[in-house]
Fold each of these.
Amino acid sequence: MTHKVAVIGAGLAGLSCASYLRRSGCFVEVFEQERTLGGRVATLRNGLVAYDTGAQYLTARSDKFRSYINELVASGYAARWDAKMSSGETKGVQLHTWYVGTPGMSSIVRPLAESVRVHTGKRVHTLTQTDKGWTVWFEDQTNVGPFSAVAVAIPAPEARLLVGRIEGMVETLSRVRMLPTWAVMVRLDERLLPDQDVYSDMSEVLRWIARNNSKPGRGGSGETIVIHASPAWSRETEDADPQSVAEELWAEVRRQLNLPDVAPKQMAAHLWRYGLVDQSLGESFIFSTHYKLGICGDWCLGRLAEHAYESGQGLGKAIAGSLT
Ligand SMILES: Cc1cc2nc3c(=O)[nH]c(=O)nc-3n(C[C@H](O)[C@H](O)[C@H](O)COP(=O)(O)OP(=O)(O)OC[C@H]3O[C@@H](n4cnc5c(N)ncnc54)[C@H](O)[C@@H]3O)c2cc1C
């Protein structure tokens, strides 16, 4: 019998889990609240211009993730990014080779989504279980099911809302802390940043500045820049108006890099409310064999894309094993 499994969230963890389950012979349906796939591995379009607003590059410390990246590179979904930075930063920041999705970061999840059914624009509101299995409820009161098992692949604070009724899970999830991060996208007609392509930890406000179009496959004229605020500053300003956040961060970039007062052609801010993991769980995933419900995400193991991938694979294996 083919088991049906529901996966909530089409970020790297959810799609990695879904693809593992599919390869194990399950029928998988993925439900994603946004219109696009990838979650925080994001390529956000502002008009005709695309920016990587979340994860900036991938590194591979484990053999499993390295072999996935090699597959991506071979099939044209990713390429190496040799970003120019000062030699001090090379020592401090770039211990591993950097890879980026091409033509945008979100390409890195595409092969994982190929063999599974993904439903976008579907925010999951509630999960209920009967003796027939799990039912997935959406915000508009519609539902689908039954499913033999469910994988919840969303940030821990949001997962708490979905699995709150299952004993012990809320306490476990409460150990995880995630911090917000503002991302600002800036487009200029002319090249303006000095020689380096990336700058990190420039001030208490700025965590990251990158010349987005220095990444392979981006092209276009002028300059596109992605700025990330520090988690501390982002937390203080998380309820602020995005336009004033964008203006403030751009002014801080100009101050720190001594740039002339040039008006951007385009400037917008996006808040990642659960952007970066501050305190992880320290376990690869959470799974209840009794309820046939599991939770995965970067926050299980760390704060990087590769942690999300590994957590998803681990949960996929546990679910597949429990259904045989
Ligand atoms: C600003 C920033 C910079 C970063 N830089 C790097 C970097 O350079 N290198 C690196 O390796 N990592 C970086 N990261 C971290 C990396 O992006 C994450 O580790 C990884 O993308 C997490 O994947 P995930 O699948 O666990 O979660 P997510 O990507 O958050 O995926 C969760 C998905 O679930 C969906 N969802 C949530 N709730 C629901 C619901 N109720 N119903 C349906 N769908 C739902 C969301 O829309 C999302 O698509 C960065 C992150 C941020 C925010």
Note: The longest helix spans residues 305-323.
Amino acid sequence: MLMSNLLATTLQWLKKECVPCPLCELSPQQKQQILCKDCWQELPWFKDYVTRHELNILAACEYRYPIDQIVQQFKYHDRLHYQSLLSSLLLTLPLPRVQAIVPMPISEKRLIERGYNQSLLLAQSIAKHLNVPVWQPVERLAQHSQKGLSRLERISQIDEQFIVRQPVKERYRRVMIVDDVVTTGSSIHALTHVLQNLGCVHIYPVCIAAVFD
Ligand SMILES: [Zn+2]
């Protein structure tokens, strides 16, 4: 057991020290997570709030190269080694003090297709770092096609996707929503509504990246 721990730690160290930066492919002198220091500094940092549906959402980056590709790889191609990089982007933000972390839920259909909820993985890292629990009181139903719907119809359809998972054992007043990418903010808006109905008073949404038109 001890020996395998030692082996795992050594492998982790080797990976961290010797694997070239995935963005520029140079062997880095200094590293920030898996990136070299230069690539890390040149990320499309944003570290500010975007306002969507009158909600202030804290975003680490703008959704453009290379963050868009990293998120896509993480989300659709099982590149789970990007998890610690993406979590560390969130940890550069001035995160509020909360009692629990709520990952943006995905529908069971998506979960089966993808095998994991990328926001849950990020939420777990953040929760561990902040020493608070992950809380998942809301489930998400599969989305129907939104083709041909008006903006308002789309919003109400998204609202209907989020339902409380019964029974709700724990309740929290101050929570953080963790999402990967924010575009219109409709999902965060809908989730916020359900959380408010569950008694949450302070809800702080944070995301890896925000899409700007
Ligand atoms: Zn690099």
Note: The beta strands are 31-32, 35-36, 45-52, 55-62, 100-103, 138-140, 162-164, 174-182, 202-210.
